[in-house]
């Protein structure tokens, strides 16, 4: 029916006005405006960095397995069961038990109440899979044991990443988990991602270890190289103090040497350990090691008992600031690799916005002119629907604070091109109907009714494509699927409410005229 | 109303399509697609130089000195803008890009890195996989939808039309070595939607006419239906192409590949809904019985 109730007309108008207001609020710069939401610009439009980091969990797994061996030894010793030939082959712990203990060892490892091989009720799985072969036992991380380990390490890493990014002070960073070994970092508006990249690329494992007197590498020592040249030194494996005991670190100027240093303060436990080690080690060289490289190795002149100290090592003010930042934010549980980076400079982003808006305006004008040329008065109606459509589309994107990307703008332009399709289908159908039906109101009504299934079919197919793109796509492409999908919904609304309302008003007024369309 | 004998050319255009598809497949198999960094891994840098005398070969030479594997340099829109792509990407060295910029500045003067994309091998293979899954899924979803809405003969026609459009569009990308990246996948998916849309409009009319006229053969009936919907087909293609052309010409370099793929897709989509989808109905000898039988079930 071409008849619209007053209530319906009013609600359509109110609905349209509200969304148009949302849409326009993006372009006003008033601070005290009633509606404070805006479309988010994607990184490709406002500039910024997208970094995908992957944790390399291998060192963590090896570390945990080594710790597990010690735990196993202690546990079975307490139970007075003697095990021998402990070894770690790849990711497998192996040991042998004596004939008479086999049953008991097996029971202790496979029991659901086991203290040494935890059972997770929710996963129906132990932490370790146990394989028994005569008197030989092999322990491997079970699938869920590994998942739990990775999740724990990811949680820890994401916290450290967040602290480091926050310390640098970028605006509204977005830090998210991806799967169980990846972290997504989005840094909008960041001009130069190099500093953050190098900060995130460091594990920041700080240790203090004495330099060994021996000139040969032996059991209990390791050979490490210096950070800024190729010198090497033999260092005792015993860790005097690690970064965990640090409570604060900041860059300062050493007034005696006129050198930039990083000064740190320790917690109580750390201060005690440090004091004890430095009092017994006067005269020895204490190496300060960061991620396996020696930063410096000063000689201990007197016991350091105050719980604070300095790290020197040819720092510039910038590198001292960065080291202090890393030490304050803590060490990552495992190294992070940047496996994907996408950075767009702010001026390219602005260029993209300009080009996007220009092509939107031109595309819009071309379509509008073509429709008026083709349909005259009805072209005008279709165009009014198109303009409303655009306002609704932008209004909805604003309301949900969707992210607009460059492909997203392309999606809007494409919507402009395809949105007239529904009106064209209707108008063409009406033309056919008027051939057999002299009463224009009936003909128009038939045109709307008979084209409805076709329009639905045609739009559902595009909607399917948009849906799949939304769930499979990433980043900018996802933005395209959002505008395309929402565009279809607003198109249907503008065609069936706006255009139809205008059409019915026009037809009722001009029903005496020959050949309306 | 239009009265063009589209059906007289069914055979000729089918042969043309077959030739185009075979040519495309040959190129796709032998030459393959020119994958961008999204799918191949590696590094892409869009740079702007301050010095207008810098040309492609100077930039290529400076990059070649850095041991980055295969380097390709292309102009990108402006005279001072270039796109550089190379195989190497280094996830373990956070200073990788910074070092390149420093070396480049010392050899050809100040450069501004406007865009950097660095994709590791693991990520690129995942992106490729999810792209293929997305396209396959959308084809399957379309098939399902059309199967629910129409009879199997129609589904076959629509699906063949879509395959035709996607294969030829990709074939053209292969022939001209145009780059395939994430946005091309989005374009292909949209082409699938558009081609389907166009075919469905004609099929709806064919079905309606099948109900209306029991004595007209399908060969003639498809022609009537095509003619009845022709103005709509043309007007919608024109408005869509106008919008796409505007993106292609004014939307900036980044959207060029995307809009080109879409333009090709719309042209072939419009063509195939007339010359692929309808001949399938003729070949399968669809009649009033086909739809009446289904509706009784």
Report a brief summary of the structure.
The complex is a heterodimer of chains A (517) and B (297). Chain A is of the alpha+beta class and 517 residues long.
What is the gyration radius of chain B calculated from CA atoms?
Answer: 24 Å
Query: What's the overall geometry of chain B?
Result: elongated
The pLDDT mean of chain A sits at: 89
The number of strands of chain B is 6
Which geometry of chain A do the CA atoms define?
elongated
Largest sheet of chain A: 6 strands, mixed
Tally of structural domains of chain A: 3
Number of strands of chain A: 21
Structure overview:
The complex is a heterodimer of chains A (517) and B (297). Chain A is of the alpha+beta class and 517 residues long. Helices cover 51% and strands 21% of the residues of chain A. Chain A folds into three domains: 6-42 and 345-509, Multidrug efflux transporter AcrB transmembrane fold (Up-down Bundle), CATH 1.20.1640.10; 58-146, Gyrase A, domain 2 (2-Layer Sandwich), CATH 3.30.1360; 206-341, Gyrase A, domain 2 (2-Layer Sandwich), CATH 3.30.1360.200. Chain A is built from 13 helices and 21 strands. Chain A has a six-stranded mixed β-sheet with strand order 13-12-18-17-11-14. A four-stranded antiparallel β-sheet of chain A has the order 9-10-2-20. Chain A is elongated and about 110 Å long. The mean pLDDT of chain A is 89. Chain B has 297 residues and is α+β, with helices and mostly antiparallel strands. Chain B has helices spanning 10-30, 37-40, 56-64, 96-108, 121-149, 152-175, 182-212, 218-250, 256-275, 277-283, 288-296; strands at 34-35, 42-49, 71-76, 78-86, 111-119, 179-180. In chain B, strands 3-4-2-5 form a four-stranded antiparallel β-sheet. In chain B, a hairpin with a 1-residue loop joins strand 3 and strand 4. Chains A and B meet through helix 6, strand 20, helix 9, helix 11 and helix 12 of A and strand 5, helix 5, helix 7, helix 8 and helix 9 of B. Strand 20 of chain A pairs antiparallel with strand 5 (111-119) of chain B.
């Amino acid at each position: 029916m071409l008849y619209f109730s007053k209530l319906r007309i009013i609600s359509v108008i109110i609905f349209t006005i509200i969304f148009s207001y949302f849409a326009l609020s993006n372009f006003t710069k008033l601070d005290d405006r009633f509606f404070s939401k805006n479309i988010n610009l994607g990184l490709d439009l406002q500039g910024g960095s997208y970094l995908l980091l992957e944790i390399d969990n291998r060192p963590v797994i090896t570390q945990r397995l080594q710790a597990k061996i010690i735990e196993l030894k202690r546990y079975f010793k307490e139970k007075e069961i003697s095990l021998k030939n402990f070894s770690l082959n790849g990711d497998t712990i192996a040991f042998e038990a004596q004939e008479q203990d086999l049953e008991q060892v097996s029971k202790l490892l496979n029991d659901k109440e086991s203290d040494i091989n935890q059972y997770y009720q929710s996963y129906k799985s132990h932490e370790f899979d146990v394989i028994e072969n005569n008197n030989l036992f092999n322990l491997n991380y079970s699938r869920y044991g590994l998942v739990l380990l990775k999740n724990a390490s990811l949680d820890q890493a994401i916290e450290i990443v967040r602290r480091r990014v926050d310390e640098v002070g970028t605006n509204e960073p977005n830090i998210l988990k991806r799967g169980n070994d990846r972290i997504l970092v989005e840094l909008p508006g960041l001009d130069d991602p190099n500093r953050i990249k190098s900060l995130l690329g460091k594990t920041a494992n700080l240790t203090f270890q004495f330099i060994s007197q021996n000139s040969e590498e032996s059991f209990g020592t390791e050979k490490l190289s210096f950070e800024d040249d190729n010198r090497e030194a033999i260092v005792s494996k015993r860790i005097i103090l690690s970064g965990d005991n640090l409570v604060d670190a900041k860059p300062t100027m050493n007034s005696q040497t006129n050198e930039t240093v990083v000064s740190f303060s320790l917690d109580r436990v750390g201060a005690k350990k440090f004091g004890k080690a430095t009092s017994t080690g006067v005269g020895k060289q204490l190496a300060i090691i960061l991620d396996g490289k020696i930063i410096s190795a000063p000689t201990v002149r007197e016991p350091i008992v105050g719980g604070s100290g300095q790290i020197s090592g040819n720092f510039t003010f910038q590198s001292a600031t960065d080291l202090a930042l890393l030490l304050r934010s803590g060490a990552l549980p495992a190294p992070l690799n940047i496996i994907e980076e996408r950075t767009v400079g702010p001026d390219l982003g602005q260029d993209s916005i300009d080009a996007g808006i220009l092509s939107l305006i031109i595309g819009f004008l071309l379509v509008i002119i073509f429709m008026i040329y083709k349909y005259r008065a009805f072209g005008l109606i279709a165009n009014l629907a198109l303009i409303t459509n655009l306002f609704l589309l932008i209004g909805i994107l604003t309301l949900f604070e969707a992210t607009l990307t460059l492909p997203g703008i392309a999606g809007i332009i494409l919507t402009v091109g395809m949105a007239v399709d529904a009106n064209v289908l209707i108008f063409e159908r009406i033309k056919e109907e008027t051939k057999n039906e002299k009463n224009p109101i009936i003909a128009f009504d038939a045109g709307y009714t008979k084209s409805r299934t076709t329009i639905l079919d045609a739009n559902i197919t595009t909607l399917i494509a948009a849906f799949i793109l939304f769930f499979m796509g990433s980043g900018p492409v996802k933005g395209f699927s959002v505008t395309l999908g929402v565009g279809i919904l607003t198109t249907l609304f503008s065609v069936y409410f706006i255009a139809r309302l205008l059409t019915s008003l026009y037809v009722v007024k001009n029903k005496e005229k020959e050949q309306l369309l | 109303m239009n009265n063009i004998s589209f059906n007289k050319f069914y055979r000729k255009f089918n042969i043309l399509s077959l030739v185009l598809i075979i040519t495309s497949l040959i190129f796709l198999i032998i030459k393959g697609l020119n994958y961008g960094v999204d799918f191949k891994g590696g590094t892409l840098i869009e740079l702007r130089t301050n010095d207008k005398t810098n040309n492609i070969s100077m930039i290529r030479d400076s990059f070649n000195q850095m041991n980055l594997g295969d380097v390709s340099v292309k102009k990108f829109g402006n005279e001072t803008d270039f796109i550089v792509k190379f195989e190497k990407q280094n996830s373990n060295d956070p200073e990788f890009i910074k070092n390149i910029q420093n070396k480049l500045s010392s050899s050809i003067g100040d450069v501004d890195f406007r865009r950097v994309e660095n994709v590791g091998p693991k990520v690129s293979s995942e992106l490729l996989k999810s792209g293929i899954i997305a396209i396959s899924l959308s084809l399957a979803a379309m098939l399902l939808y059309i199967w629910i809405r129409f009879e199997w003969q129609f589904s076959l026609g629509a699906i063949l039309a879509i395959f035709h459009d996607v294969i030829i569009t990709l074939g053209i990308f292969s022939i001209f070595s145009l780059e395939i990246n994430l946005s091309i996948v989005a374009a292909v998916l949209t082409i699938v939607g558009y081609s389907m849309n166009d075919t469905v409009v004609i099929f709806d009319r064919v079905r309606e006419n099948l109900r209306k006229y029991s004595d007209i053969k399908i060969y003639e009936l498809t022609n009537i239906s095509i003619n009845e919907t022709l103005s709509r087909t043309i007007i919608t293609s024109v408005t869509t192409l106008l919008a796409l052309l505007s993106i292609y010409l004014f939307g900036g370099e980044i959207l060029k590949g995307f809009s080109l793929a879409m333009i090709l897709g719309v042209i072939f989509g419009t063509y195939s809904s007339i010359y692929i989808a309808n001949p399938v109905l003729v070949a399968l000898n669809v009649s009033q019985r086909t739809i009446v039988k289904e509706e009784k079930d």
